[in-house]
Amino acid sequence: LSVMDASVIGHKGLVKTMESICKEKNIKYTYDSLVAGGTDSGEINKSFDGVINMTLSIPCRYFHSHNSVVHLKDYEAYVELLVEFIKRLDEAKLNEVYKCICDYHNNERRSPTYREIGQACNIGSISWVSNLVQVLEDRDLISLETRGKRRVISVPSDLCAANTRNASIVGSCP
């Protein structure tokens, strides 16, 4: 798990998530921190409005040559970690966030803050909440407006009322 290199500092929430998956699944891991050199994470991190990322690497010999050598167990652990992480990034969390937003609109008659969404949906990172809200906006389920210093989440009332009763409100990823 790369905490940092010369081009980027790994997102704290993402590093902790990967660490917890490793502990839960008994996947061996080490921390990596480089003071010189960088990875593509540094450039990815600066894309758009900023992209949450971190570097995962496999211990490797002769990395910058035509043939590299990795230990099979390291490779298998890497694949297991990625598969488990991807499984957890399912539509259920997106549905949960959308339902939370609709519940706030229906019950509180106001837009929830990102912090309130995070607390209600057990998401520790406000940046992660922001990314999920962005996906909902990209799918035209909500719209974001800026009012002063606050971003307000708007949901069409007819869509919100109908969708809070459905089991699956978001559908599959494009």
Give a description of the structure.
With 174 residues, the protein is mainly alpha-helical. It contains seven helices and five strands, in the order ββαβαααααββα. The chain has helices spanning 12-24, 41-45, 72-88, 91-108, 114-121, 126-138, 157-163, and strands at residues 2-5, 8-9, 32-33, 143-147, 150-154. Strands 2-1-3 form a three-stranded mixed sheet. It has a two-stranded antiparallel ribbon with strand order 4-5. A hairpin with a 2-residue loop joins strand 1 (2-5) and strand 2 (8-9). Residues 164-174 have low confidence and may be disordered.
Give start-end ranges of low-pLDDT stretches. Answer: 164-174
Strand order of the largest sheet: 2-1-3
- Helical fraction equals 40-55%
* Computed CA radius of gyration, to the nearest angstrom: 19 Å
User: Which strand-content bin applies to the residues?
Assistant: 5-15%
The 3D shape can be described as elongated
Largest sheet, strands/sense/barrel:
3 strands, mixed
Mean pLDDT: 81
Distinct helical segment count: 7
Oligomerization: single chain
SSE-based structural type: mainly alpha
- Succession of helices and strands: EEHEHHHHHEEH
- How many strand segments? 5
Give the N-to-C terminal Cα separation. 29 Å
Strands, helices and their partners?
Elements: E1 2-5, E2 8-9, H1 12-24, E3 32-33, H2 41-45, H3 72-88, H4 91-108, H5 114-121, H6 126-138, E4 143-147, E5 150-154, H7 157-163
Parallel strand pairs: 1-3
Antiparallel strand pairs: 1-2, 4-5
Helix pairs in contact: 4-5, 4-6, 4-7
